[in-house]
Design goal:
549 residues, 3 domains, two-stranded antiparallel sheet, two-stranded antiparallel ribbon, 65% helix
Length: 549
């Protein structure tokens, strides 16, 4: 398993630190070994040893013990006080080695044979001892400078966090009620936001007062990540539909596939940022949540993409789970720009999550849905969803009310679009390209009709079911089965493709009870209308432009 950049940096640091300690030990041993030549001879002759040689022996022993202790204790979890002591002690050792180098250097540079004979020292050994002590001095000076730089960087990072003034995550997000595995309604979202406002007294201290990690010995505890994980399990997972799947089953795969945990935390952070009210006191905290969400989203995609070429029965379930969650998170991120049409982005082409959606299709077609959706990922029995909040409130703005007033007949409109597409392809030169375009349009329209028929009643297309809340797997089936060439036409702003996308937005809007999809339908309709202009107005479902479920 590949390491993340943070872990790779730690591994590199550990290797460099061990190499430095080994070099310090080697030179600290070499100096007393060379000076020991004269000490041994003095001991045999019964002469008194020179105090400078004894001083060099003591400095060498102290240096060996210090290098051994620093190498045994990895320093990345040190506090600023500990780093300050390291800087002081290594500076002291550097000065002691400067004195040793000066002693041996003075003797090595002396041209007086009488002085050497008077001291009874070995010339070659003294010269080599001077070189070894000089290298040792350099190593300890560099070590002291590196420790000083780390101490200064830590202080600067703390000051930067204080100036940022953001707030940390709350220990407990809003508690969503009334979610029986079918998603989140507007009523629940509003009630949850109100509960969150009432819990402000239980929030964590501002981010400037809380370090992003708590150091316990050599272990780093990510407080923000733990808060996001708690929010995911208690609040976010039940809003995704099948709470048993996303709350209980999916995390079990995260231990061997960290990309799942990354995308869970990203989705949780986006959810928490959306639940926060847009006030002055919470805006910084919401921004902090979005920064965390982006960090985990990028990490999840980076770790998930290499899994596709290595697809097998062992990792197929993990790849399926992480891909679906990445799609949810892509919705939760919201439109990236005014030209973002969910499936494509103007001047950018295919959006990343569409590539991963094709990955889901590839997984299911290669391994088989029976293999992927088995064991603890087996789907729960389907239940009939309740009527949407707009239907129960009797506001008259939901899809059911509009359709009952015969405001719009989707089957008739799609039939007209098919006729326009046929005329467009026939007007082109009779070629294989025209035939291929006609086939692409026909496949997209038929797939869209199936999605409408499942969402609305088949016996009378103008009268929808009692509940017009779409199901995610039904609505997204259109995007799931789209021909890549149709998506390419969307990226080229092809008119027929954009009109069909506008009708797909109606289906997307039936998923408005899901917080991460809410608002996408209106956005797509608005963007398509702006791109096409009034020429194609009669083929677009404007009656649904302001409809909400």
């Amino acid at each position: 398993m590949s390491l993340c950049p943070k872990h790779e940096n730690r591994k590199t640091y550990d290797v460099a630190n061990m190499a430095l300690r080994c070099a310090q030990c080697v030179f600290a041993i070499l100096v007393p070994a060379l000076s020991g030549v004269d000490l041994g001879r003095w001991s045999q002759s019964g002469s008194h040893a020179d105090s400078r040689w004894i001083y060099a022996e003591v400095v060498s022993v102290v240096s060996i013990l210090t290098a051994w202790a620093c190498g045994l204790r990895q320093r990345r979890a040190q506090s600023r006080a500990s780093l300050g002591f390291c800087v002081f002690w290594q500076a002291v050792l550097s000065l002691l080695w400067v004195v040793v180098s000066a002693v041996f250097g003075q003797l090595a540079a002396s041209d007086s044979a009488a002085a050497a004979e008077e001291l009874d020292v070995t010339g070659p050994a003294v010269g080599m001892a001077f070189a070894a002590s000089s290298f040792s001095t350099l190593l300890w000076v560099l070590d002291a400078l590196e420790a000083c730089a780390r101490c200064t960087a830590g202080r600067a990072e703390k000051v930067g966090a204080e100036e940022q003034g953001g707030q940390g995550l709350e220990e407990e997000g809003v508690r969503v009620i009334g979610l029986e595995g079918t998603g989140e309604t507007e009523e629940t979202e509003t009630r949850g936001a109100q509960e969150m406002n009432g819990q402000s007294s239980e929030a964590l201290p501002p981010y400037s007062e809380v370090e992003s990690t708590i150091e316990i010995g050599k272990t780093e505890l990510a407080v923000d990540d733990l808060a996001l994980l708690h929010h995911y399990h208690t609040v976010t997972a039940p809003t995704l539909g099948d709470a048993r799947l996303w709350r209980d089953a999916a995390p079990r795969l995260g231990r061997e596939h960290p990309c799942i945990f990354h995308i869970m935390l990203s989705l949780s952070a986006y959810h928490l940022a959306r639940l926060r009210p847009a006030t002055t006191t919470s805006s910084a905290s919401a921004a902090h949540c979005r920064r965390l969400a982006e960090h985990h989203y990028e990490a999840a995609v980076r770790l998930a993409v290499p899994m596709l070429p290595r697809l097998d029965v062992v990792n197929c379930q993990a790849l399926y789970v992480v891909t679906v969650l990445i799609c949810f998170t892509a919705f939760a991120r919201g439109p990236s720009s005014s030209g973002d049409l969910l499936l494509v982005a103007q001047q950018q082409g295919l959006v990343p999550w569409m590539s991963l959606l094709r990955g889901v299709r590839f997984v299911l077609e290669t391994v088989g849905s029976a293999t992927v959706l088995s064991g603890f990922l087996a789907p729960a029995p389907e239940t009939t969803p309740e009527a949407c909040y707009a239907c129960r409130s009797g506001c008259g703005r939901c899809f059911a009310a509009l359709a009952q007033r015969r405001a719009w007949n989707w089957r008739e409109t799609l039939g007209r679009i098919q006729e326009v597409a046929a005329k467009k392809t026939c007007s082109d030169a009779a070629s294989a390209a025209a035939a291929a375009a006609a086939k692409i349009y026909d496949g997209a329209i038929k797939s869209l009709v199936r999605c409408f028929e499942t969402t609305f009643r088949e016996d009378d297309a103008t009268v929808p079911k009692t509940c017009t809340q779409g199901q995610v797997h039904v609505v997204m089936a259109w995007a799931y089965t789209l021909d890549p060439d149709f998506v390419a036409k969307l990226a080229e702003s092809d008119e027929i493709s954009l009109v069909l996308l506008g009708h797909f937005a109606v289906l997307v809007q039936t998923l408005g009870r899901y917080w991460f999809i809410k608002g996408w339908g209106e956005h797509i309709l608005r963007e398509v209308r702006q791109i096409l202009g009034e020429e194609w107005a009669d083929l677009l479902p404007y009656e649904f432009y302001n409809a909400r479920c």
